[in-house]
Amino acid sequence: MTNLNNIYIIGAGAIGKALAVFLNRAGKNVTLVRGSVNDGSASTEAITVEVRGNTFTENIPVVTLNALATLDGLIIICTKSFGNEALAATLQTKSVTSPIVLLQNGLGIETPFLHFPQLFRCVLFVTSQTTSGIVRFKPVAPCPVGLVQGDERLLKEITHIMSTADFSFIPEHQIKRNVWSKAIINTVFNSICPLLETDNGVFHREETALRLARGIIYTCVAIAERDGVQLEANEVEANLLRISKASDQQLISTLQDIQKGRQTEIDTLNFAIARVAGSNFADDVREVLLLGELIKLKATLHHQVGAIS
């Protein structure tokens, strides 16, 4: 039997670090695994998280994947979704049978992991940003976790193990609806905020920005319906505004990635929604695709300027 009290968090970004700190403070046996480095190194890192006006620092063991012969415990993946195929292939070489929970944005991100027997999908309602060496974490609502495949009886136990006062999770038996709703919200944030080079709070502060968001929401809700998911545009908009207010002055991950010259997750947002729409509805998603192309171009140009300088 897998020892679920051993928790491996793959991805040492702002979400992974915050989760590691909260779980470590709760007495869990946590190992933070770097998802983009695989040099076999191991160390202990003092990680500081700021949440709700409080600051915590915990010493967290940090390793790379090839330093681990096996992963006997709960595996939580917080890496960028564009690396999922390579990560899934690496985990397969380690004969992983432990439950895997994906804490990632986008549609279809679970596909590379479908050969693992216990697979769960989380929808994040938090924001996290590292500035001046401190992870600034803002919870918006409990994060739903649902079963993709495997034993649904594990769902309640896993959400209980992962939950802390500052980063909480709840079981969700209709996770596909949550995935679509959040993917639409992320498409709005990750398209408009980077192009405007502004923070998440723009939608509750600026009516023009909200009108742009509303157009994307209505388009994507119609596409979700073709995928068998019924959503209310007003409900999606209300959740977008709730996140906008809760993460005012915080930068969306795509803007952070562009500023640091890193690859973005726009393929699992705008372009994934367009793939669901298909060629028969290409006109319906023209604006969503255009925004995605602009984000890709902005990331490319920023990377080129950085390389030249």
Q: In total, how many beta strands?
A: 11
Helix percent reads 40-55%
Measured distance between first and last alpha carbons: 53 Å
Q: Which outline best applies?
A: globular
Average of the residue pLDDT scores: 94
Number of helices: 10
User: What sequence of helices (H) and strands (E) makes up the elements?
Assistant: EHEEEEHEEEEEHEHHHHHHH
Largest sheet: 11 strands, mixed
Widest sheet: strand order? 8-9-3-4-2-1-5-6-7-10-11
**In terms of structural class, how would the helical and strand content be classed?**
alpha/beta
- Report Rg: 19 Å
Q: What is the percentage of strand-forming residues?
A: 15-25%
> Which stretches of 5+ consecutive residues score pLDDT under 50?
none
